[in-house]
Amino acid sequence: MKRRLSLILAALLLASCASGCGSDAEKGSETTQNSGDTESTTGVTDEYDYPSLDLGGEDFVFLTASNVANMYNTIEVDEQNGDLLDDAVYKRNIFVEDKYNLKVVNMKSDTVNDDIQLAVNSGDNVYQAAYPLTNTLGSMVLEGMFWDLNKGSGFNFDREWWDKAVMDDVKIGKDKAVYFANSDLSLLNFEATWCMYFNRRMVENLQLDMPYQTVRDGNWTFDELYKYISAGANLNGDDSYNWNKDGNCVYGFTSMSPDFITQCYVSSNEKQIKFEDGAPKLMVGSDKFYQVTDKLKKVFGETGTAFFSNNKDDGSHYELVFGAGRAMFTACEIKGGNGGGVFSEMVDDYGIVPMPKFDTNQKNYISPIAVWTYFLTVPVSNPDIETASVVLDTMSYLSYRDIVPIYYDVALQVKHIRDEETSEMLDIIRSTRTYYTAYAFGFGSTLRGNLASYIVSDKGDAASIIATSKDATIAEMDKAMETFNSK
Q1: Is the dihedral of CA 16, 22, 28, 29 positive or negative?
Q2: Which of 1, 73, 461, 477 is 20 to 30 A from 341, alpha carbon to alpha carbon?
Q3: Contact, 327 vs 251, CB < 8 A?
Q4: Could you tell me the strand order of the sheet in which 58-65 lies?
Q5: pTM reported for the whole predicted model
Q6: Residue 232, Cα to own-chain centre: how many angstroms?
Q7: Contacts for 277 with CB less than 8 Å, ≥ 6 apart
Q8: At a CB cut-off of 8 Å and minimum separation 6, what does 6 contact?
Q9: Helix-strand-coil percent breakdown of the chain, rounded to 5?
C-alpha cells in the first residue's frame, strides 16, 4: 500500500508539472493522451472489445441531478482544468466521442424524474440515458418508463465495471428484468456508500484502541461499537442530553433515522425485504430478525449514547454535530472521505471504518449504498437500446479503468484521509457494497419507518409493528409483481 501511494503521489507531482510548466509539458501531454493509444493514462493495457459504431456526430445525452448532497456527480467536463477527476472524465469522453463519432452531453435538472416522465409521455427522444432518484423509481418502472436493460446486447453485466451485488438484487419478475443498474460510469454511488467516521482524539483520550485492528480481525460488530459510544457519551456539565447548540454535552454516536437503522439491518445481513429469484420476500419475524432488532435497540436506544437528527436549522444535523466535535462516532455516506466537505474544517482528526457486522459469525462486512441514490436507466423514449448499451458499457469500462483509480487512490486515500489505516478500511468498504432494493420499488416504507421509531425512540414494539404491517407489505409487493409478471 505504501509503495502504491508513493507512486500515486509521484504521478500527482508529474500531473501538477504538466498543468503548470508551460507549452512543452502540454505538448507532451497531448501525445500520451491520444485516444488511439492501446494503453490508458494509468498504464493499464486496453483489452476491451470495442464494438463497431458510428453515430454520425449525434449527441448522446445524459440526464442527471443538478447537485447531490456535495457528492461528485460529473458526467461531462467542457475542458481540462487541472482537477484530476475532471480531467479524467474529460479524457474518457474524448475517447468515446472519437471512437463512436458522438458527442457526450450532460443535461442537469432539479426535477430529473419529472423530466423523464415528460419525455416518455411525449415520445421525445431527448435523453439517451438518465439517472433518476430512487424515491419514485419503482412507480416509474411499473408505468413502463424504462427499458429492460437485458435487451441491450452491448452490456457486459458480468464484468468488473458493473456492481454485481446491486445487479443481482435488482432483477425482477419472471423474466428477471433489469430496469436500473449501477456501474463505474458515475462516481456517485462510491460517494453514497455508508461508513462510520470516528473522532480519534476522543478515542485516544478515553484510552481506547483505534478500531482498525478489530476490523481487520473480523470482529467489528455492533457490540464493539457500543463499547466505544457508551464510553464516549458525556454530559460535560450540561443538565441533559437534549440538544443545545451552545451546550457542551458529547454524544457517543449521531446519525439520521430511519435511513441509518435500515442500513444497520442491511449490514447485519438481515434486510427487511430481500429479492430472491426475481421476487421480493418479506424477511421480518424470524428469530434472527428479532435478534438484530433487539441488538440495535440496545446500541442505539439509549439517550446520550445515540442522538438522531437531520435538522440543519438548529445545528443538530448529525454531520454538523460530529464536525463540531460533539460526537465520538457518526454514520453517513463516504462523500469523498470527508463528509462532502462538512468535515474539512474539523479540528479533530478522524478515521473511517465499515458499518459493523451483527456478530462475529457473520462472514463479511456489508456496506450499504444510500437508499435515496440515483441509478442508471435508459428511458423508453430512446428507441435504440442497442446503441445505448454499447455507449454505456464502454463508458463504464473506461471509468473503471481510468477514473475509479484516480478517485479512489487520490481523492479518497491521499487528498482527504488523515491516517494511513483509513485507506485499508476504504478497500473493505468498496469491495462489500450492496443496495436495499426494496426502497427503490417503494416496498415496506411504513414497516421501515415504524421499526426505526421503535429502535431510536421506543415507539411501539417490534412484534406489534410487524404484525400490523406484514399483510399490507405483502399485498403491495404481490400487486407490483402481478404487473411485472404480465409484461
Answers
A1: positive
A2: 1
A3: yes
A4: 102-109, 58-65, 129-130
A5: 0.88
A6: 28
A7: none
A8: none
A9: 45, 15, 40
